[in-house]
Design goal:
Rossmann fold, 7 helices, seven-stranded parallel beta sheet, about 15% strand, three-stranded antiparallel beta sheet, 10 strands, alpha/beta, single chain
Length: about 240
């Protein structure tokens, strides 16, 4: 596990974007696993800036996103498809037909999960997976549990996750209670994993992820077993290490 220290969120975002940029440059037709939430926004902004400067070409890149709320349409401004379009895809030359997000409108959970696993297999797996880190150690929407998930699954969101996400909705009641998420097993099959962590409020959980036991009660702790993980974290997030 490689831990890269950044002074603040801005430097963190630049360093994370540099790793993704190197992946795209080295393998122009790579498959990027992408994440949503507040943590990667700065990284996407930096990638967009470099693209506009002519330093990056996304024309042959394929992307698969970690998760999507069950029940939200792609054009819903709180869906993760909408988030990705707004924060990255609409601003670079990636082919939208090669950007994949779980189908939040598929009511049959088993069908939605099976189809997304088939998509990931069809594109050849993930070259680099970008992750954020939840306050309870979740990655994607894989919440603390008594076992690690394998493939794409439908999860009931915990109260802490609903609480963390309600700021994006008009009220807590509007936050979906379920989501489709890429499984831990799928994430661990990625050739490289990049985790971005920012803020003092993530310091305690980051210490558990890096230094604690590998346990499904802290889902991200399994990253200790992956051969190529880079964590880019700012000084605040690393303050308990």
């Amino acid at each position: 596990m490689n831990i890269c220290k950044a002074k603040d969120y801005k430097e963190l975002s630049r360093k994370a974007a540099n790793i993704i940029s190197a992946q795209v440059t080295m393998k122009p037709d790579c498959v990027l696993g992408l994440a949503t939430g507040s943590s990667p926004v700065g990284t996407y902004e930096q990638l967009i800036e470099w693209y506009k400067m002519g330093d990056l070409d996304f024309s042959n890149v394929t992307s698969v996103n970690l998760d999507e709320y069950k029940g939200l349409a792609p054009d819903n401004d709180q869906s993760y498809r909408y988030f990705m379009n707004t924060n990255l895809f609409d601003h670079v030359n990636i082919e939208k037909m090669r950007t994949y997000v779980p189908n939040g409108l598929e009511p049959n959970s088993k069908k939605a999960c099976r189809e997304y696993d088939e998509i990931i297999e069809k594109v050849g797996g993930i070259d680099l997976q970008l992750l954020g880190l939840g306050h309870n150690g979740h990655i994607g929407f894989n919440e603390p549990s008594d076992s690690f998930t394998k493939g794409t699954n439908c999860v009931d969101l915990t109260e802490s996750t609903i609480e963390a996400n309600k700021r994006f909705f008009e009220s807590e009641a509007d936050v979906p209670r379920q989501a489709y998420t890429m499984g831990i097993g799928t994430i661990m099959k990625a050739k490289k994993i990049l985790v971005v962590v920012s803020g003092k409020d993530k310091a305690d959980i980051l210490k558990k992820v890096v230094c604690g036991p590998v346990t499904p009660e802290v889902p991200a702790s399994i990253l200790q077993l992956h051969p190529d993980v880079t964590i880019v974290a700012d000084e605040a997030a690393l303050s308990e290490m």
